[in-house]
Amino acid sequence: MASKNKQVHIDSAMSFKDATQFWNERFDQEEFIFGKEPNEYLVEKARQHLKVNDKVLCIADGEGRNGVWLAKQGMHVVGFDASDIALAKAKKFAQENHVQVDYSFSDTDSFDWQVNEYDAVVGIFIQFADPAMRERIFRQTYQTLKPGGIFILQGYTPKQLEYKTGGPSLIEHLYTEDLIRDLAKDFTILELTSYEKELSEGPRHTGMSAILGLVARK
Description:
Elements: H1 16-27, H2 40-49, E1 55-58, H3 65-72, E2 76-81, H4 84-96, E3 101-105, E4 118-124, H5 131-144, E5 145-156, H6 160-163, H7 177-183, E6 188-201, E7 205-217
Parallel strand pairs: 1-2, 1-4, 2-3, 4-5
Antiparallel strand pairs: 5-7, 6-7
C-alpha cells in the first residue's frame, strides 16, 4: 500500500497532451484510484450550501466520484478532465448510478468557462495546477459562477510532504491559508480552515493527511 500512496510529481510546464498521458497511466486500471465515495469535505459543505437543481461544475472530476454523488443529490452536474480514460470510467459510473453528468475532455485552460453559468464550482485535490494555472483557475471560477454562487475547494497543505499519503511532491502546488486567502480576494470567504485528518479515498488518498478547506461566495 505504501508504494501506491507515494506522492505524485507533476511537471509545472505540463501540456494538455502530456497531462493526458500522465493521468491516463494512473487511471488505466479497473480499480478507482481515489475510491468511489465522494470527498467528505464536499459532502458536508454541499449539504450546507447547495440545493436540488443547482448547476454545478466539477473541475478535473477524474473517475467521477464527486460529480456522480452531486448528481444523485438532484443537481445538474458538468465536469471535465484531461484523462479520457478517467472520463470513460466516470461515464460508466454515472450510468451505473442512474444519473447524468455532462462530461467533456478538457483541461482547465481549454474548458469553456462561460460567464455567470454555475451555482457552484467544486475543486477537490486539483493540485496538478502550478501557481500560474492556480491563479487562472480562481479567476475562471469567479467568472463562471453566478452572483452568489459557491466555490468549494479542498487540497493538501505543505505539511502533507511529511505524511506522504497522497498529493503532489512539489511544495508550490500545495495550499496555505494565506495563499488561498489572497487568491480568493474577489470572493467572500465563508470558511477557510486547515486541519489534519485520516483519509480513506482509494489507494491514492489513504492515511493521515494535512488538508485545507475553502468555501467562498461570489
